[in-house]
Amino acid sequence: MYPRVPALRSAAPQSLVAALPNSHPSPISLVACFFTWHELPVRSLTRQSLFSSNHVAAFLHLGVLAMRFRGTLAKDALAVLLDVAQSFARLSTQSSAKANCVFTLTPETLSIALKSGGAEELQSFARLQTARLFHDVVVQSRAENHIGFECDVRHFQQALTSGKDASAVMLRLLKRDGSNFLCLRTRAVDIDIVQSIPIEVLAMSTVEHYREPSVPAPQIAIEMPPLRALRSIVDRLKVMHKTMTVEASKTGTLILRIDTHPLTLQTLFAHLRYRDDLIDEDEEDQEEEERRRQQTSSSVTVDSKVLSKAILVDGQSTDSVLCCITENRAMVLHSILVDSFGSFTCYIPVLTPDL
């Protein structure tokens, strides 16, 4: 979608290692894996008492990969990226999929994908503008400056959370003792914290399997009501029936309906904004265009639990959420992030009409 740097060798000071408490390894390690996330107080990680600026420099250049990535998050960008990471973490805990997300870095975009192997599972993708997120950013690789890796999004969220009050957060890819890490360095007044998240670097041929699915152009697109209000309705309906019909119209209505013989229950949201500007007519023939104009609404049937998961994505960085529907074929929730940072998209599997 979208020059090789020699690795430096550096040993930890024996006094530093000896001073550490005995502890079990943690998935997220601090200060070149010499400190653990849970057991070392943050207040002890000072330049003066633990390591010199030379040790920091040696660590930050230790085992640099043939690929290179570094960038510094601004304060507003950190809030947006943390919001996106929290959304993925919530979706992963609600899904049968693992919590591992695939990250794809290019000089233009940072893409994150949470995708399971099953067609019945929710697929979620974020696409963020690299230049909007980072300053002093470098993205280089032999694969046309594309970098792909997989990591546990929960660890990524924890690392970002620890830096939300810092003045700056720097991200960098490092290789150490044959293992790859995404390192986050947070800076406060007199405290530096370096966290190392284990990652698995992926070939771009593997990353191709985590691209967004191809879906037909929407027949109806409307702006959703507040997702918290919608979620309370969906959560009540999902306990009554395993499937739910979602219907959107050009008049700005959204209907949630369940059919439980002999009863039919539905909730209607009115006065929503219809987005005619998102309907692509360029590739339609005359007959299809006429049929589309006569069609005033479109509906899909989806798994009630999957829909409930999809509307968990309602963070503070979301400006608006669009619901795009193609009759009996596709339903997409497309969240526009604030200040042109990017978007967050959920593809909801559509069930056949006879279910």
TrEMBL record:
<dbReference type="GO" id="GO:0035861">
    <property type="term" value="C:site of double-strand break"/>
</dbReference>
<dbReference type="Pfam" id="PF04005">
    <property type="entry name" value="Hus1"/>
</dbReference>
<dbReference type="GO" id="GO:0044778">
    <property type="term" value="P:meiotic DNA integrity checkpoint signaling"/>
</dbReference>
<dbReference type="GO" id="GO:0000724">
    <property type="term" value="P:double-strand break repair via homologous recombination"/>
</dbReference>
<protein>
    <recommendedName>
        <fullName>Checkpoint protein</fullName>
    </recommendedName>
</protein>
<dbReference type="InterPro" id="IPR016580">
    <property type="entry name" value="HUS1"/>
</dbReference>
<dbReference type="InterPro" id="IPR007150">
    <property type="entry name" value="HUS1/Mec3"/>
</dbReference>
<dbReference type="GO" id="GO:0031573">
    <property type="term" value="P:mitotic intra-S DNA damage checkpoint signaling"/>
</dbReference>
<dbReference type="GO" id="GO:0030896">
    <property type="term" value="C:checkpoint clamp complex"/>
</dbReference>
<keyword id="KW-0539">Nucleus</keyword>
<dbReference type="GO" id="GO:0006289">
    <property type="term" value="P:nucleotide-excision repair"/>
</dbReference>
<feature type="region of interest" description="Disordered">
    <location>
        <begin position="280"/>
        <end position="299"/>
    </location>
</feature>
<comment type="similarity">
    <text>Belongs to the HUS1 family.</text>
</comment>
<dbReference type="GO" id="GO:0005730">
    <property type="term" value="C:nucleolus"/>
</dbReference>
<dbReference type="GO" id="GO:0000723">
    <property type="term" value="P:telomere maintenance"/>
</dbReference>
<dbReference type="GO" id="GO:0033314">
    <property type="term" value="P:mitotic DNA replication checkpoint signaling"/>
</dbReference>
